[in-house]
Amino acid sequence: MCLTCPGIEKTIENSSRPVQIAPGLAVGGADVVLMAGPCAVESYEQTRAIAEALHQLGIRVIRGGAFKPRTSPDSFQGLGLDGLKILRAVADEFGLTVITEALGVRHVELVAEYADVIQIGSRNMQHYPLLWEVGQADKPVVLKRGFMSTVSEWLSAAEHISRRGNDEIILCERGIRTFEPSTRNTLDTNAIALVKQTSPYPVIGDPSHATGHADLVIPAARAAVAAGADGLLVEVHPEPRAALSDADQALPLEALPELHKQIGRIAAALGRSLV
Fold first, then answer.
1. CA dist., res. 211 & res. 224, Å (int)
2. Domain 31-274 fold
3. What three-state secondary structure class fits 186?
4. What is the C-alpha to C-alpha distance for residues 66 and 89, in angstroms, rounded to an integer?
5. What are phi and psi of 267, to 5 degrees?
6. What is the rounded distance in angstroms from the CA atom of residue 75 to the CA atom of residue 122?
7. 199 with 138: CB under 8 angstroms?
């Protein structure tokens, strides 16, 4: 598609259908939606501190892992049901929307009880029984791109969900594995722009997993929004050095206002506003 052709801005803007994730809050419309929270829910105190910081900035979505798919079995695997209960409690206190991951088919019903949005992680993008199960759930789904998956495979995974009856799908570009070892992954901004033009689904970016370095999260977030992302999924922590998972990529809470300010400026330059 020619990016200099007349009307291209309208084509990109109208390519996806907004997904309602809470009353008065949709992903894929005129606004850019910022979603932030810990990689893993570690305690009530940690999660509440984050929720309060989000609320103060007007950020309406908290993300956090209760079930954690870790490469090493010796790594922190999450608090499970207790983590879900903590997320729901702090979200209700501050009026936030909850997004969290379901690792397997047996987790979907439980996660749906506590969360507003179900996340399918990168490692599970082609876990077809899980895709079928969330396809029958009455909840929006964030589908992360597999870290070694093509855009075509990613969109096909989304169709597995859609064909089971759930079309409330948000795609998430979280970086892919390349030959470059300097960062955890490579943020594919090309893919963000492409799926905005060729699929009916909104797309968000995950600059935390894409970079693996806290000091690169804000620049990568700017790039994702500039490429057309409808939102961002960002990891934050009150004490990143003490984080039980993905400590290197967690933004400190005090960096949230700067992230919010810079993303707001990029969104405004594109004629959008930041939730």
1. 12
2. TIM Barrel (3.20.20)
3. strand
4. 13
5. -60, -45
6. 18
7. no
Task: Tell me the one-letter amino acid at 205.
Answer: G
Which runs of E-coded beta strand occur in 136-270?
141-144, 169-173, 203-205, 231-237, 251-252
* Rounded Cα gap, residues 227 and 80, in angstroms: 35
7: Cβ contacts below 8 Å, ≥ 6 apart: none
* pTM check: above 0.90: yes
The crossing angle, in degrees rounded to 10, of helices 105-114 and 81-94 is 30
The answer to whether the CB of 21 falls within 8 A of the CB of 116 is yes
| Residue 74 DSSP code | T
Q: Which band of pLDDT confidence, cut at 50, 70 and 90, is reported for residue 151? A: very high
CB contact burial 45-56 (16+ within 10 A = b; e otherwise): ebbbbbbebbbe
**183 touches 211 (CB < 8 A):** yes
User: Is 2's pLDDT higher than 50?
Assistant: no
Residue with tokens 């964030």: 142
Chain-centroid distance of CA 210 in Å reads: 11
Query: According to the model, what pLDDT value does residue 33 have?
Result: 98
